[in-house]
Amino acid sequence: MMRRPWVLPALVVAVSCGTTRPSATPLGRGPLAGPESEDVPEAMEARRHRPNETYEVAAVPDAGPPEASVASKASAKPDAGRALAASPGAATPGTSAPGAFAGDYRGEDVTEMKMGTNASAPQKDPNARIVVSEDADGALAFKLVASNDGSTICTLKAPRPTGATTALTAGQHCFDQPDSPMQSLVTSGSATFTGSRLVFVLAMAMTVDLPDMRETGSIDYRFDGKRN
To answer: Residue 12 gets which letter from DSSP?
Structure first.
């Protein structure tokens, strides 16, 4: 996860001190479609003036009595779903086994912040860390950990995964700092598990309250790591 302290980029100052002007260069035009060809192949032209023709259709031989219905054949096969449910420790299709996703994940993350037409350079951390825990109902909690001092940046919650993916609950705070004019709320996000790998993606709406104005922007965050 990103290191603390996380200082607001200079783009906040750039936005508050200047205004964005429209580009003086007009946008280009895409290629216009040329006229379609009106050529008609000679064969098609000759067929159009050909006298009406008649055709004979051969009779289809009798195939005999139909075989046993598909439903009858299917009923003879064992019920795969019942067999799966009867297996000890097997998970119900579409859900996961208890504790399947909990663990300490470490890898790399990238954070990008935009405000108006200004954007900060992507902030990369090769020592990112997210700790995933699971409650009795299978709901997950994702604790984002600062890589420089091990402190908790925020803990975000998500419902029990469907398959190997869960959606983050919108409206949660993250990346807020004490005595900072910046606040950010989760607008969307997801966590996808593939074996021991976790891909965690967040989109957040950001507001910065300056003494004489309020600026709005967005934060995009992506973590890719593996469980230790």
So the answer is: H
The answer to whether 56 touches 62, Cβ cutoff 8 Å, is no
Q: State the Cα–Cα distance between residues 149 and 190, nearest whole angstrom.
A: 26
Q: Which two tokens stand for residue 89?
A: 């420790």
Q: Is the separation of the CB atoms in 106 and 129 below 8 Å? A: yes
- Rg of the chain's alpha carbons, rounded to an integer? 31
pLDDT tens per residue, range 158-208: 999 989 999 999 999 998 877 888 899 999 999 999 999 999 999 999 998
Whether residue 153 contacts residue 183, with contact meaning beta carbons closer than 8 Å, is answered with: no
* pTM greater than 0.70: no
Q: Which residues contact 58 (CB under 8 A, 6 or more apart)?
A: none
Q: In the beta sheet, which residues pair with residue 143? A: 131, 155
What whole-number distance in Å separates Cα of residue 161 and Cα of residue 159? 6
Q: Residue 173: which residues within 8 A CB-CB, separation 6 or more?
A: 154, 183, 184, 185, 186
At residue 3, the 3 state secondary structure works out as coil
Antiparallel, parallel or unpaired: β 118-119 and 103-115: antiparallel
Please list the residues that pair with 173 across neighbouring strands: 185
Amino acid sitting at position 150: G
pLDDT score recorded for residue 178: 75
